[in-house]
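Hello,

Our lab assistant flagged a job as stuck in the queue for most of the afternoon. It eventually completed. Since we weren't sure the result was trustworthy after the delay, we are filing this so someone can double-check. Below is the sequence as submitted and the structure that was eventually returned. Let us know if re-running is recommended.
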Amino acid sequence: MLYNFQLRREGYGNSVHIGDSFEYEKEQYVVIRIGSVKWSTNYAKKVPVLVTKVIAQKHRGELIASKYKDYASFSKTYRQEDVIGYDAKNEILQVGHFMQDADGLVLEIANIDKIAFDFVDLIVHYSTRTIPEWSHSEMEAALKKERLKKFAVIPGKQND
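-- returned structure --
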């Protein structure tokens, strides 16, 4: 099963990449998609800070994406007072935005198909695509690669 996470990394030696693993609430997750990145600085420590929005898959979690259509569409109505100004309650969804439905399926907005006004409201029609999950073998390979990165190989004599 896939989940939305926000990861924060501090320091020049820390990066985020597809296949990264991390633990959350005693469960292991692997990053399978990076959606956005914000870069700032921790001035007290004088180090860069990366904040990324990612899609991560739970290790040994249920695979559900194959049960759904690859593509879907929907429309959303935005009221002007809800999306404009400093007190905006909503942001207009953009291409690349990840969202998760009640069943746990993660979708990515692939396209904005139509934008129209209905009196003073804005109606946006979207196309989405299902984010495919990694197979259990792909997950195991990513976790093994992460484990191996933590060990230093010491050259030595091979036994015959």
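-- support follow-up --
The delay was a queue issue, not a problem with the job. The result is valid. The two ends are 45 Å apart (CA to CA). DSSP finds two helices and eight strands in the chain.
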